[in-house]
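Problem 12. The chain below contains 399 residues. Write out its predicted structure in token notation.
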Amino acid sequence: MTNVRHSGHLSDPTRRTAGIRIPFPARLNPHAERARRHTLQWLLETGLLTGGAAAREYDTLRLERLMAYFYPDATGGDLDLAADFNAWFFIFDDQFDGLLGTRPEAIEELVDTLGRTMTPAGGTDGSPSAGPPGEPTGEPPLVLGFRDIWRRATRGAARGWQQRFRRHWLAYMAAHRGEALNRNADHLPTLDEFLRLRRHTIGVQPCLDFTERCGGYALPDELHGGSPLREMREITAEVVIFVNDIVSLPKELAAGDVNNSVVVLREQKGCTLDEAVDLVADLANERAARFTALAASLPGSLPRSRSGRRGVRPEVHGHVEHYVEGMRHLMAGNLAWSLATSRYDERGVAAVSGGRQRPWAHLVDAPVPAPREAHAAETAEATPVTPASAFGSRSRPGR
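Solution.
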């Protein structure tokens, strides 16, 4: 994979995505700068970032702007939380660029540890909820950060929404084991096999759950899981996947990762990378057109009562409209952000080339910094650490 020649077409994200047509506007939340400052501080307090150099490298990615596109009308507090969980998403994802990404059993252990934080109290194994980030807890940064996100996101939320949110997070985390199996396999999956897994690792479902939270509602299960919303959520995930796989292709080629629909289609079709990019762009356009058709027919597909009157309350109609608009924000915002972030340009490729990894990509083995050290790290170039297992007496997944 790392020996593939990058054409000029592949080196420029704007050129690679030129054939994609997402017919929805992207809008940016005006609280993006506030969210940026908040999340940088949160990352230092939880130990997900240590040192000024790591914070500056993270800041160039402008990940908070992705959430500002996803939730353009969210309040400042909701956008802060969204920016925190998005930061966690990407930092968690970067753990798999190295050895951990090829170790399915270690990933299972990590997912099990994280999954046990998703309790009503936000604790682990039935223990009381810990204090806010910055207070000593003995938890590794990935667990500390995720527990804090879960506690804040689910506070006061409907029980059914919490259960759905938990299922989507667990599916997102657990699917990384399947990607590890792909990296170890003798052959690539088919596109359908790849998408069954990738729909989870793309992380769209928890983001759509947060659309409901920002709107102050929880869709009824029969609507959320019924037609056509189920298909529309799948389409949203796949449009985000196809855009992400096109813009991240040089980065993943540099890292030797096969979990990319362009790579899968190149193998399946026996075509060039440029031709596979065009095929994936066509798939994104087909999905977006299908979404538009489903959205137009949605009002008439909502359940009716036997008397012929709508079986869905008027306020729920408004919630459905908000949710569908949220899907549009995800598709349009992902493309807008992807063309502006340094994660997928030449700097992003260089950051993972030649065996290099991001400075936050080894958290499974990293110790938790003391609270004062975390605050001091904001201005320090680096914080020296002593290697220690992130999971106490359990095995070390990242080694």
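Discussion. Residues 1-8, 124-130, 305-310, 366-399 have pLDDT under 50 and may be disordered. Students who got a different answer should revisit the alignment rule from Section 12.3.
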